[in-house]
């Protein structure tokens, strides 16, 4: 599987491509300098997003996960830039409970692009599975202006 590595203000990110789709983004993951057109475009879009110049990603994605995880990933992708939802909101939308939503968010293999940072707990931030945990979540929410009292 081709892997590209980019340096960002969030740290080094590794982007993995498989069968013409992005399958993973890892902090400090596998090093790689693959130069596929898709990885170049993914790197460009992630850098543009982190610079505040891109509001919506346009990449083919293939996150691994069962049916509920896929439904949660689709629900997260539907949340507009700068907006947030709670675990409970998604649970209600998907006719399940908050805990499976949280588990799916924590298992998100393509953070940033699949915006699990836009999912909050009913009483605050909730967790974040990317490097830096809630500090990274706060930084992404501030970038988007999506959590007004943090801005």
Question: Which structural traits does this protein have?
Answer:
alpha+beta, Arc Repressor Mutant, subunit A, two-stranded parallel sheet, globular, 151 residues, 5 strands
Your description of this structure?
The model has no long low-confidence stretch (mean pLDDT 91). The chain has 151 residues and is an alpha+beta fold. Strand 1 (3-8) and strand 2 form a beta hairpin. It has two domains: 3-50, no CATH class; 67-150, Arc Repressor Mutant, subunit A, CATH 1.10.10. The strands form two sheets. The protein has a three-stranded antiparallel sheet with strand order 1-2-3, with helices on one face. The N and C termini lie far apart (39 Å). The protein is globular and about 40 Å long. It has helices at 37-50, 67-77, 87-93, 98-106, 134-144; strands at 3-8, 11-18, 21-27, 85-86, 119-120.
């Amino acid at each position: 599987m081709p892997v590209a590595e980019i340096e960002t203000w969030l740290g080094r990110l590794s982007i993995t491509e498989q069968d013409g789709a992005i399958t993973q983004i890892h902090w400090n993951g596998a090093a790689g300098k693959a130069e596929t057109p898709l990885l170049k475009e993914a790197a460009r879009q992630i850098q543009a997003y982190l610079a505040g110049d891109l509001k919506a990603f346009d990449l083919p994605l293939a996150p691994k996960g069962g049916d509920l995880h896929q439904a949660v990933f689709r629900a997260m992708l539907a949340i507009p830039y700068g907006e947030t939802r709670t675990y409970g909101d998604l649970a209600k939308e998907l006719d399940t409970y908050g805990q499976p939503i949280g588990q799916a968010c924590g298992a998100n293999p393509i953070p940033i692009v699949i915006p699990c940072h836009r999912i909050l707990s009913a009483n605050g931030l909730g967790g974040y599975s990317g490097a830096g945990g809630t500090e990274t979540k706060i930084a992404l929410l501030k970038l988007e202006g999506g959590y007004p009292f943090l801005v």
